[in-house]
């Protein structure tokens, strides 16, 4: 996996990044996409080193579909994990795909803002970014505690 480096790449070893990419690719292979044929795989690294994979799962009602990134997060949270170190997202396309708006908001709930997000294209090239770069000025748990929870 080659990389367009930014300062987040030093946080995660190349060995772990390669494992995450492999896991995201395996997840993509299990995607259920009979309508769009747009397969996406994700791999989420928890603070304790556990890797959760997720794929997109479509539904005839479209709105009931779930993206690969949210699948990985839901699996992790349902197993008691709420602190994360990295996320990888991959597809079958040459261009980099990034999490949709709903996923960006969902991911930001669990932070941290500097969490490395690696976007991997079908050629194995990587674009490194962060949650903060994907969703600047997020409305997250901190604002929720300040404005919504009394």
From TrEMBL:
Molecular functions per Gene Ontology: cytidine deaminase activity; zinc ion binding
A biological process term (GO) from this entry: nucleobase-containing small molecule metabolic process
Protein family membership: Belongs to the cytidine and deoxycytidylate deaminase family.
Source lineage: Eukaryota, Fungi, Fungi incertae sedis, Mucoromycota, Mucoromycotina
GO CC field: cytosol
Enzyme class: hydrolase
Statement: the UniProt record of this protein carries the keyword Isomerase: no
Enzyme Commission designation: 3.5.4.5
Active site: 69 (proton donor)
Protein's UniProt name: Cytidine deaminase
Binding site for Zn(2+): 67, 100, 103
Catalyzed reaction equations: 2'-deoxycytidine + H2O + H(+) = 2'-deoxyuridine + NH4(+); cytidine + H2O + H(+) = uridine + NH4(+)
Required cofactor(s): Zn(2+)
Domain CMP/dCMP-type deaminase, first and last residues per copy: 15-142
Keywords, alphabetical: Hydrolase, Metal-binding, Zinc
Role according to the record: This enzyme scavenges exogenous and endogenous cytidine and 2'-deoxycytidine for UMP synthesis.
Residues given in the record as substrate binding sites: 56-62
CDD domains: cytidine_deaminase
UniProt-listed NCBIfam families: cyt_deam_tetra, PRK05578.1
Keyword presence, Transport: no
């Amino acid at each position: 996996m080659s990389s367009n480096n930014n300062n987040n790449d030093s946080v995660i070893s190349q060995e772990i990044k390669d494992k995450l990419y492999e896991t995201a690719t395996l997840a993509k292979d299990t995607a259920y996409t009979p309508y769009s044929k747009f397969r996406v795989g994700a791999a989420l690294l928890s603070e304790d080193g556990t890797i959760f994979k997720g794929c997109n799962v479509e539904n005839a009602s479209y709105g009931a579909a779930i993206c690969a990134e949210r699948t990985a997060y839901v699996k992790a949270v349902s197993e008691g994990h709420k602190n994360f170190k990295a996320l990888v997202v991959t597809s079958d396309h040459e261009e980099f795909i990034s999490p949709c708006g709903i996923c960006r908001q969902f991911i930001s709930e669990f932070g941290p803002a500097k969490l490395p997000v690696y976007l991997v294209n079908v050629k194995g090239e990587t674009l490194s970014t962060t949650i903060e770069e994907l969703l600047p000025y997020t409305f997250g748990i901190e604002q929720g505690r300040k404005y919504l929870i009394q």
